[in-house]
Write a structure and sequence with these properties.
The protein is mainly α. Helices cover 75% and strands 0% of the residues. The mean pLDDT is 84.
């Protein structure tokens, strides 16, 4: 089914050549943005944190929605698009370099992007390899190479191809989360019953005000810092804006 949907999307975009950059629908953009922004590392990591901190982790989700997505599209992405068209820039490095009239800035930014996106990409690749290691009898080092090769092959399709594959990933993530939420509600008897069960749990060291309230002191500040880091930090990523 996954490959059938991908084949359909490629066929649908064939008139504009699906392997090149070009206009895509808003739905494809939205799913691709979320799949790029909210990676598998965040889904797995925040799931574990929610087990320890309770419902206060939903503040991170709210920050991602309003600050990391709505504010980005409303105040940053649209002006970036206009300047990109005005300057004829295709990459974030070109956008900054042409905007300041500095070819050396373009080269410097390209180096910075390559360095730090490599660091971030390595964390994502390792996370995927560790997940695969749970279900495949293959050494982790081999799975890291396998995931890295698969990720590298996606760039063959160009920006448009990456958008479609990311959009498909976003759909898979959405379906998976809905299935997980439905399974949890069925186990606890429903959302309201689950909330009551959480509220009845005694406070812990990490959730010192209970599992349905924001923690006090350093624990609460940690949660709020996660909101800032995961929501507002995206404002400094021009590749996401573009």
């Amino acid at each position: 089914g996954y490959f059938a949907v991908f084949a359909f999307l490629v066929h649908k975009g064939r008139s504009k050549d699906a392997v090149l950059s070009g206009s895509v629908g808003f739905g494809v953009q939205a799913f691709a943005y979320v799949a790029t922004y909210i990676s598998a590392v965040a889904l797995v990591g925040f799931g574990g944190l929610a087990h320890a901190y309770g419902l206060q982790m939903l503040l991170v989700a709210a920050g991602n929605v309003w600050f990391g997505t709505w504010a980005v599209y409303r105040f940053l992405a649209w002006p970036t698009r206009k300047w990109q068209e005005r300057l004829g820039a295709r990459t974030p490095a070109q956008l900054l370099g042409l905007g300041h009239g500095s070819p050396s800035l373009t080269r410097a930014m390209a180096f910075v992007f390559a360095l730090f996106l490599g660091v971030y990409g390595s964390a994502v690749i390792k996370g995927a390899a560790l997940l695969l290691a749970e279900i495949l009898p293959v050494p982790v080092w081999a799975l890291i190479w396998l995931v890295a090769i698969i990720v590298g092959l996606t760039f063959i399709g160009g920006l448009r191809g990456v958008l479609y594959t990311e959009a498909m990933q976003g759909v898979v993530m959405l379906v998976g989360m809905l299935m997980l939420v439905g399974a949890i509600f069925s186990k606890v008897g429903g959302p309201w019953e689950g909330m009551q069960a959480l509220a009845a749990l005694p406070p812990s060291d990490l959730a010192n005000n209970g599992f349905v309230s924001l923690s006090g002191g350093e624990r609460g500040l940690f949660i709020l810092s996660l909101v800032v880091v995961t929501s507002i930090a995206v404002w400094a990523q021009p590749q996401m804006m573009q």
